[in-house]
């Protein structure tokens, strides 16, 4: 029993490293890790493979699948992040003013 307790963390770690290494290999082999041209080719391959798979899946399930575009989701996330970064200085300034005003009101 004690030997199993010592081996289990090693097996868990080895499993995690294997999964991470496999994911990294698949990403590299697919062209996701590389230049923009390789990435756009990989995206085109993914789009070509996903559409038939979704149609096949809806035949088995029996209901329509909601349209989802990873590209649009990525773009909206990037836009929100950039907007938050651009608005950060004025937002911090406003919060600082509100905090100072609150402290002034407490002191009075």
From TrEMBL:
Question: How would you describe this protein's topology in the membrane?
Answer: Single-pass membrane protein
Q: Could you name the Gene Ontology cellular component terms for this entry?
A: MICOS complex; mitochondrial crista junction
Q: Where in the cell is it found?
A: Mitochondrion inner membrane
Question: What GO terms in the biological process aspect are recorded for it?
Answer: cristae formation
Where this protein primarily resides, as one coarse class?
mitochondrion
The signal peptide, as residue positions, is: none
- Keywords tagged on the record: Membrane, Mitochondrion, Mitochondrion inner membrane, Transmembrane, Transmembrane helix
Would you say which domain of life the source belongs to? Eukaryota
Q: Which family does it belong to?
A: Belongs to the MICOS complex subunit Mic13 family.
What the protein does comes down to:
Component of the MICOS complex, a large protein complex of the mitochondrial inner membrane that plays crucial roles in the maintenance of crista junctions, inner membrane architecture, and formation of contact sites to the outer membrane.
Fetch the PANTHER family from UniProt.
Answer: MICOS COMPLEX SUBUNIT MIC13 (PTHR31816:SF3)
Assembly behavior: Component of the mitochondrial contact site and cristae organizing system (MICOS) complex.
What is the designated name of this protein?
A: MICOS complex subunit MIC13
Source organism per UniProt: Danionella cerebrum
């Amino acid at each position: 029993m004690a030997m199993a307790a010592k081996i289990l963390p090693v097996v868990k770690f080895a499993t995690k490293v294997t999964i991470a290494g496999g994911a990294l290999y698949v990403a590299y082999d697919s062209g996701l890790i590389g230049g923009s041209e390789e990435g756009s080719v990989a995206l085109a391959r993914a789009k070509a493979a996903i559409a038939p798979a979704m149609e096949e899946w809806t035949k088995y399930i029996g209901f329509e699948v909601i349209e989802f575009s990873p590209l649009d989701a990525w773009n909206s996330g990037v836009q929100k992040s950039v907007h938050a970064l651009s608005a950060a200085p004025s937002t911090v300034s406003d919060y600082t003013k509100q905090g100072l005003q609150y402290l002034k009101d407490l002191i009075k």
